[in-house]
Hints:
The structure holds two protein chains of two kinds. Chain A has five helices and two strands; from the N terminus they run H-H-E-E-H-H-H.
Amino acid sequence: MSRDEIYAKVRIVLMDALSVDEQDVTPQATLREDLGAESIDFLDIVFRLEKEFGIKIPRGELFPENLVNDPQYVQAGRVTPAGLAELKKRMPHSDFSLLEGDPQVNNVQSLFTVDAIVNYIAGKVA
Amino acid sequence: MRWLWIDKFVEFVPGQRAVATKNVSLAEEHLHDLYPDFPIVPHSLVIEGFAQTAGILVGQTRQFAEKVILAKISRATFHRLARPGDTLSFHAEIRQVSEQGATCGGMVQVGDQPLADIELMFSHVDQNMAGVRFPAHNFVFDGAMLQLVQSRCSVDIPLTPTKPA
Lengths: 126, 165
């Protein structure tokens, strides 16, 4: 399956799960801020991706959980070097350029983009 | 009083599907709330009956240890109204189940007539991704509730864990 085919399917999954318009689902769109995803939507997205691509997504593999609540990884509202290293290890499918430049914890959301999902799926179905 | 929106299970295949029924009576107050002199079951309560059928089916796969909460109505398409005198049958199937939740789909019928097609997503709320903590007591499947459900079954609902099909 080509990357374009994966992207097209991921867009449909996100449009259905989040009730957003096609033009809103761009590669750089973040799930929470741009597409309005709430925490329960992440489980919905996982179920829909599993069904659409016929894959199994282990818990925490696509969307790591509770990492920002760990004081080892986040202190004073900023992601620590250890936290950044852990996030990179767990989310090789994400773009870290914004978070590395400004490790505010709010910028962790920049890791959860449409493109990150496409990268993850491409790795799974390759 | 426990708020149950189904009267009886007539089929229960662990980890796969269940069918429950509800008789709609003119004596139910909510039927008169939407339209004067035109009693109907609100669509939301038809969905609730389906969700209870599916939620118990999902709960059984984890021996009712998880708190199974309706998280999303993914789709609900209605073909007719539910009216006094109707016997609704909720046909629910498990589509996906994981540590964190489940998806279910199926239909609601009156006799052999389709009333609605419904798809739902459930969360095992203690496994939520946001890390929110809930009371330890299982407020969804308590002993009294399970006893009541089992007393209204023409089939056994096993209390042992079952892997989904």
